[in-house]
Specification:
heterodimer, B: about 90 residues, mainly alpha, about 45% helix, elongated
Chain lengths: ~325, ~90
């Protein structure tokens, strides 16, 4: 990000959020956003509201830009600041009685005490480590609850023992070892997993910490109809695609609490085909990807992209599914 | 002559038509993958993970949701700079 934008941002409160939910949903924050950006009305069209908005607590829009041109962005920020200075004090307050906090966000299901991984994917060429890292990369989070972690680790865990982390690997293979280096992609159905294996071997004990070596592979293949039902991700067309990965890694487990204290997994993959929005255009030629998954210590509560399809009891679902088309279709009023 | 020229133009197009996906998968299997070892993990980590420049957006103290942004905007009496994308802008796209 341009240093001039970072410096200018000091004059604002900065927030980032996923906009599809905000512009389509019926939660309090969605309604507030829609009325702010749509002249006081709920949004019923499908036009994008992506971009950078300068907004007020009173529900006003001072400026907006949807551009990666730095000069355009800087001019928009300045225009917004100027408008803020001229704004009456009462418009710098959230109106009395207006609700803002949503009943449901996926972040509410954050698995406290579980395993949270930050996953990076980057395109890889034939030179691998001898080449230059591709500029095509993306980020996601992977969540496992405390109970799931406890269920996947043997107790007691002693050096020399080995065991499968197949449930962990299945979630990764379905939702996180996917081709979204260039853009939004699709998860795999359980039945599309052709091969999933992740073996852990306890190779050392240092104090209370058990050191694990990890090794495995996955193969996922989607070909034919969409198998994951009605949801946000249902594609308009059947596009065959797949991915085959080799995995290696290491992890530390606290022998007393039975929790992961460190976790790192590397994957290299062959991918083929494409999905509707993953930036491959009409080019479904095969290529390589590299994945790196690392335990997240930042406390970031960003939810995994496909958490709505995790299908686990600890993931709380919204009352109104996010794939519903519009407030009008679900029969909600304007309050 | 004219007919022959047309064939000459169109035949290459026929040969570069997209292969069926099963063939794409077969092609993918021919791609070599590097051997992995525990020793190489630090090099791979440095290779794959984003650089400080690539994480430039982290130079701004972003709140992770719109409602928090509006509340903080009111509390600090500053305008809200709201970054909105399909897929969360801080990742997970």
């Amino acid at each position: 990000m341009d240093p001039r934008v970072i410096a200018k941002a000091e004059s604002f409160v900065c927030a980032a959020d996923e906009v599809w939910r905000l512009q389509r949903g019926s939660e309090a924050d969605c309604v507030f956003f829609q009325k702010a950006v749509n002249q006081g009305e709920r949004i019923t069209d499908r036009g994008t509201r992506q971009g950078t908005w300068i907004m007020t607590p009173g529900g006003g829009v001072l400026a907006r830009v949807n551009s990666r041109n730095i000069d355009d962005v800087l001019a928009t920020l300045e225009r917004g600041l100027q408008a803020w200075r001229e704004l009456p004090a009462d418009q710098k307050r959230v109106p009395e009685g207006v609700k803002l906090e949503p009943q449901h966000r996926w972040e509410h299901s954050y698995p406290q005490g579980g395993l949270v991984l930050e996953r990076i994917v980057r395109e890889l060429d034939e030179h691998a480590l001898s080449g230059r890292p591709s500029a095509r990369w993306n980020r996601d989070m992977c969540w496992f609850s405390k109970e799931e972690v406890q269920a996947m680790l043997p107790s007691p865990l002693r050096p020399g023992s080995s065991f499968d982390l197949s449930e962990l690997a299945r979630r990764l293979a379905r939702f996180h070892l996917v081709d979204n280096a260039r853009g939004q992609t699709l998860p795999f159905a359980e039945s599309e997993l052709q091969r999933v294996r992740l073996r852990a071997e306890a190779i050392a004990k240092v104090g209370d910490t058990i050191v694990l070596a990890l090794e495995g592979e996955t193969l996922a293949r989607a070909k034919g109809p969409w198998l994951l039902g009605q949801n946000l991700w249902k594609p308009e067309a059947e596009l065959a695609h797949g991915i085959e990965t080799k995995l290696i890694g290491r992890a530390n487990v606290d022998g007393k609490s039975g929790a992961f204290t460190d976790f790192e997994l590397l994957g290299v993959a062959r991918r083929w085909g494409r999905t509707q929005n993953n930036g491959r255009g009409k080019n479904d030629e095969p290529g390589r990807l590299a994945f790196h998954l690392l335990i997240d210590r930042s406390g970031t509560r960003l939810a995994p992209t496909f958490i709505d399809l995790y299908d686990r009891p600890w993931v709380r679902l919204p009352e109104i599914p996010g794939w519903m088309e519009s407030p009008a279709e679900i029969g909600l009023g304007d309050d | 002559m004219v007919r022959g020229m047309k064939l000459g133009l169109f035949l290459p197009l026929l040969f570069v038509a997209p292969l069926p996906t099963s063939a794409q998968e077969e092609l993918a299997r021919k791609l070599s993958l590097p051997e992995l070892s525990q020793m190489d993990l630090p090099r791979w980590r440095a290779f794959i993970r984003p650089t400080e420049k690539e994480r430039g957006y982290a130079g701004v103290r972003w709140l992770p949701d719109f409602a928090s942004g509006i509340r903080r905007s009111e509390a600090e009496q500053k305008p809200l700079l709201f970054w909105a994308m399909n897929g969360h802008p801080l990742g997970c796209t």
